[in-house]
Write a structure and sequence with these properties.
Helices cover about 55% and strands about 10% of the residues.
Amino acid sequence: MTYRQTWQDWLLHKALPLWSQAGFDRDAGLYHERLTFEATPITLPHRRLMVQARQIATYCQAALNGHYDAGEQALTVLDHVTQRYHRADGSAGWVFALGPDLAPSDTKRDLYGHAFILFAHGWAYRLTKDPALLHRAEASLAEIDQLFPSAHGGYRDVLPATSDRHSQNPHMHLLEACLTLFEVSGREVFLHHADAILKLALHSFIPAGTDALLEFFTPEWKPERPAGQNRVEPGHQAEWCWLLGEYLRLAPDGRHAAAARQAQHRLHDRLQKTAPGPFLPDALLDDGSMLEASTRIWPQTEMMRLLAQHGPADIQSRQERLAIMSQLFFTHYAPTPLNGGWIDRLDEQGKTATDHMPASSLYHIYSAGQAILGTTP
């Protein structure tokens, strides 16, 4: 069996059914946040907007791709999410989380969650062509501009603010959402926002003189720490490489196309040098030294997606590494006894470092899986 066939069997017949069945809370009409390794739901004090949005987007994509038909379930969840999270406390935006009683348990606004609810609307619109979804996406983007703007460009991470730290990660996912919405609608407002985020990324997230994508910044978008002491996550580096490829696909003559292509090659080259092994570590410093040698599942899937799509390297070398990473994925992260589930984190010795399966990982896994299934064996 080729690695592509293994992915198809596991993803379509095990993982996607698991998380739409055991991972779906029928009483609440929402998705569960976590399952035990025996696929039993775990009750938590918070049910985050981000997790709901990721699952909605994933199952809309799976329905569109003909991989698994749980699109109607996802659309119903989106209706419930809109009713319960959007302006649930009477203020603009989407609340962070609901409690077990389905009332808001945390009413802060986070850019990360708002990016993913936009992403979910993009895929739901693509599935249904319901103009109300596109209208709500545009309104939510306007709320982001209203709620989160930072004095020096870009956006704050969370409101009310708990620190002055600024992060690249929510911007990355807002870029992803805007590109998705631009592709399905053709509306310039989404490309305009994507261009603005990309300009910030090219200028500040990847500081001049380095090929490292940094994580955290001052309010002026300067590196949070001195050179050599800043956190770099190879998984996000791979994710940005792929997103830059998406920008180039959707806007080949865009205002930042040339710079995006150069940045993609620089990030990819550094990724090969600082994380050449089969697994991507959780974190390095910007001088290339190891910060966290543990490994999570999502950086591996981001690297596999890049190998399947938009990787600057030649196709043969990408396919060879993809085959190796796929074999290790099913050995270490998605072993057969879990029957569609996964181990989210391994410690430095490669041993399981978690006691549950988080639903949030499915977004990363499916993104990689669908890219792999779109390639030739």
